[in-house]
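Lab meeting, item 3. Inverse folding demo.
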């Protein structure tokens, strides 16, 4: 009897232990899946641009398409091979390589990941651009169950992992996408103050309005200032939006206690540039300003990449007239500082170079530098011994030969 009692006791203890282990396991999975817990080692790995999860493209299946506004659609993507999804740094983007009927070449477009890292899927949020080849194809022709070819997350527009300063996010229109991801990441930390200035034309363009409202209810450290520059009759001041005036130093000053924040600015090139100028004028240190331009007719340069005024290059820095030889195309042309970068020079001379972000972020235009030296910005050293260069942000500082 005693032995039987002992055995029953052992079984009971083991069962309780099993229940406890299962409960913990479920809780862990819940925390992980809900983005509320990330092992420290994993979060370190994601520091901006430090890892490239795969080379070239990987096949992803569109598992869902969600209409955010009349013009904006989110796509939820999972890897077709079912293997683990590498994490990334909030703010980074992926490139989609689209095989579009009637297009001679594969169309490559960048899309910021619009949900926080460590989900079991990637989400991108795409705005329909009038006459846009890639955005219209994606929104109208790519459906759940279909495969898209995706590069690994990349880009330098991400939260500074070494800073604990409060954060200001400034989003213009669809520039909200990396900010959504950053808010997801930042709210995991629970303490850091976050202020989002989100500007758009009217309520028709308000992406994830309800979700953002729910986040401010859940996280008291998050404040959102919503600006509708041309509100509709149905938009209610004080409920849907906080004002119609464009962002100014006065409005920043009225909301923020000081300039002691990390600023992240994303929107069109024009918007991004003007906000960065405004922050400079307001006295925000350069290293606290991070920006990304989504392109359009003219594309933003990275904030730390100071353009060299053409006159200055001509007079003081570059040799009189370096030549640029495009070896594969069998063309040699004289450098013209007015072209601003080698990519523009190549395009003007009919040399085909694939270019996507045109701001030194995506690396798509990288070409072999067979001889000579280039320079990337006023302060950088000459780059002579590297085997390749990014023509979208490089200028020649000697005669150069490129493998293009
Ligand atoms: C790093 C990065 C991240 C990006 N993230 C996102 C994102 O999260 N969501 C998103 O919707 N887009 C994003 N973009 C923009 C996106 O890559 C495409 O440029 C955009 O979808 C338009 O491509 P398209 O093929 O439809 O237009 P295209 O066929 O390339 O262009 C058609 C016409 O529209 C103009 N045009 C092109 N792009 C724009 C634009 N953005 N605004 C206004 N006019 C334009 C062109 O000058 C041209 O006249 C991002 C861009 C970059 C560089």
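The presenter then showed the designed sequence:
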């Amino acid at each position: 009897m005693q032995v039987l009692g002992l055995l029953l006791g052992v079984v009971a203890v083991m069962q309780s232990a099993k229940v406890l282990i299962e409960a913990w396991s479920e809780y862990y999975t819940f925390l992980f899946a809900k983005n509320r817990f990330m092992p420290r080692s994993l979060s370190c790995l994601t520091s901006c641009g430090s890892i490239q999860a795969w080379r070239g493209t990987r096949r992803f299946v569109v598992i869902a398409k969600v209409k955010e506004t009349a013009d904006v659609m989110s796509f939820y993507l999972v890897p077709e091979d079912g293997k683990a999804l590498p994490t990334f740094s909030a703010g980074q983007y992926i490139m989609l390589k689209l095989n579009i009927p009637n297009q001679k070449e594969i169309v490559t477009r960048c899309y910021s990941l619009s949900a926080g890292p460590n989900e079991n899927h990637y989400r991108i949020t795409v705005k329909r651009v009038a006459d846009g080849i890639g955005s219209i194809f994606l929104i109208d022709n790519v459906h759940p169950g279909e495969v898209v070819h995706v590069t690994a997350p990349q880009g330098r527009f991400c939260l500074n992992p070494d800073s604990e300063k409060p954060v200001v996010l400034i989003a213009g229109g669809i520039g909200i996408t990396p900010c959504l991801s950053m808010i997801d990441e930042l709210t995991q930390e629970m303490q850091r103050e976050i202020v989002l200035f989100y500007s758009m034309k009217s309520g028709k363009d308000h992406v994830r309005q309800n979700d953002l409202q729910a986040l401010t209810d859940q996280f008291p450290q998050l404040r959102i200032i919503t600006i509708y520059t041309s509100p509709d009759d149905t938009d209610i001041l004080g409920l849907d939006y906080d004002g119609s005036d464009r962002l100014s130093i006065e409005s920043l000053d009225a909301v923020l206690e000081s300039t002691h924040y990390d600023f992240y600015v994303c929107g069109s090139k024009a918007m991004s540039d003007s906000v960065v100028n405004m922050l400079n004028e307001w006295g925000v240190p350069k290293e606290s300003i991070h920006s990304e331009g989504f392109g359009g007719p003219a594309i933003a340069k990275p904030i730390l990449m100071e353009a060299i005024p053409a006159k200055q290059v001509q007079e003081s820095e570059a040799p009189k007239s370096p030549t640029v030889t495009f070896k594969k195309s069998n063309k040699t042309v004289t450098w013209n500082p007015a072209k601003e970068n080698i990519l523009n020079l190549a395009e003007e001379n009919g040399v085909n170079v694939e270019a996507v972000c045109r701001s030194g972020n995506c690396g798509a235009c990288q070409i072999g530098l067979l001889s000579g030296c280039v320079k990337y910005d006023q302060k950088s050293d000459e780059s002579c011994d590297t085997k390749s260069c990014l023509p979208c942000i490089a200028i020649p500082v000697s005669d150069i030969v490129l493998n293009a």
